[in-house]
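Handoff note, outgoing to incoming analyst
You'll be picking up this chain. Sequence as last confirmed:
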Amino acid sequence: MVDDVWDSGRTTFAVKARVRRAGGVPVVATLHFKPGRNRVPDRPDFYAEETAAWVVYPWALEAWPEG
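Most recent structure output, in case you need it:
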């Protein structure tokens, strides 16, 4: 699985569980990992950068600051 950001991790954690139930072996790669906001007992297998900052991606139509 590939995602732009791992924030709380809840969505990716749920998708990984579905992949496992279907007999797959989930592997996650993300651009940005926010360990301080992680709310699940898991983390991405691969990531480019750890950050606590709000990340604005060029493909986002609008960007809101966190809060």
